Amino acid sequence: MHLIRLSLLAAVALLATGCANNSPALGSKNISYGDTKAVETVTNEFGSTDLQMIAESMTRSLAQSGTLQGRPVVQVYDVKNKTSEYIDTREITTSIKTQLMKSGTARFASDNTDMQSQVDQLKLQNQSGLYKKSTVSKTGNMVAAKYRLEGSISSIVKRSSDYKDVFYKFSLQLIDVESGIAEWMDEKEIRKTTER
Predict the structure, then answer these.
(1) How many domains are there within the chain?
(2) What is the pLDDT of residue 5?
(3) What is the mean pLDDT of the chain?
(4) Which residues make beta-bridge pairs with 157?
(5) What is the residue range of 81's domain?
């Protein structure tokens, strides 16, 4: 009996290690996964490393400022892109929101672009007659934001026959909705130079 148990355990262990190590790889041999935190220097345009540096810098600064005590509700506005290139500024604010949420520093109201979806969902639940009344979210109970988070990103590009220099400046501010006073403000600067 003891020998049967040992044989069975050995067979299960062999199957488990065999399955874990022999997974087939599909696709091109020219594609590989990289470190998402590695410094990306493919071009001097705005890239993943810039996004991560900005999000981490702003999150750290805001969390350490002490302004967000008691996990206040914050509404995030789209960052204005004042550069000459396309930058998905929503990804910057999403990264900042995610890091602040994970740290337990703040809570977030529907932002200005998602507010219509929130209103539509409340209307659907309350006016369509499709939902059980005891499960319907009541109107008039949304929590108003204490603060508004907004900012901008701008760039200065200089070129010569030998170099291209791009200077990015990201600014963010936290404004008290009731008073209109900016309670926190910070900026992150990035310079990228390419030799031709």
Answers:
(1) 1
(2) 57
(3) 83
(4) 166
(5) 41-126+142-195
> What are the residues whose beta carbons fall under 8 Å from the beta carbon of 24, sequence distance 6 or more?
none
Rounded distance, CA 67 to CA 98, Å?
A: 18
pTM for the whole structure? 0.74
Alpha-carbon span 178 to 174, nearest angstrom? 12
Judged by DSSP in three states, 156 sits in strand
**Do 155 and 188 meet the contact criterion of CB atoms below 8 Å apart?**
no
Identify the DSSP state of 30. Answer: T
Measure CA of the first residue to CA of the last residue in the chain; give whole Å.
75
Long-range (24+ apart) CB contacts under 8 A made by 7-10 are none
Residue at 109 is within a domain = yes
Give the integer Cα–Cα distance in Å for 64 and 58: 10
Number of Cα atoms under 13 Å in the Cβ half of residue 117? 6
